[in-house]
Amino acid sequence: MAEKKSKLAEIKTKPTAASVEDFINALDEQKRKDSFVLLEIFKKATGEEPVLWSSSIIGFGNKRYKSATTGREVDWLRIGFSPRKANLSLYISGGIKEHADALEKLGKHKTGVGCLYINKLADVDMKVLKGMIEASASRE
Fold first, then answer.
1. pLDDT class of 22 with cuts at 50, 70, 90
2. Is residue 62 within 8 Å of residue 50, measured between CB atoms?
3. What's the pLDDT at 7?
4. Mean pLDDT over the full length of the chain
5. Contact partners, residue 75, CB within 8 Å, separation at least 6
6. Pairing of the two strands 57-66 and 72-83
7. Helix (H, G, I), strand (E, B) or coil at 104
8. Can you state the percent helix, strand and coil of the chain, rounding each to 5?
9. 3-class DSSP assignment, residue 105
10. What angle do the packed helices 126-137 and 29-46 form, to 10 degrees?
11. 3-class secondary structure for 20-84?
12. Strands 7-8 and 72-83
């Protein structure tokens, strides 16, 4: 059986040169405070400077992901977060299932395939969240 050729997919969400601080400063008070806390946690965990992807995702590092089914590749952030209107969306590498034990102790949250959704940081155990971010940052 012939091996599928890898093809780099063109996606709409790309890194920009826009200011992460300006983006955060334009948020409502609660999201702004939480975003600056997350910004420092992610910077410390990754050792990388944040980059604004598209218009609302704050990413740290780059990684090329490959779909096992289609063979298509996409360049994406290693880890990051997005202060959305409804919640804080955290993009953590390795998949949510790998954090099952931590999620039980985290506090109020929801999950998606690779995302963790938190309304506000006061709803969660910050020590547990920090551990999850550090574990994600240490993965390749």
1. very high
2. no
3. 65
4. 88
5. 8, 11, 62, 63, 64, 65
6. antiparallel
7. helix
8. 35, 30, 35
9. helix
10. 40
11. HHHHHHCCCHHHHHHHHHHHHHHHHHHCCCCEEECCCEEEEEEEEEECCCCCEEEEEEEEEEEEC
12. parallel
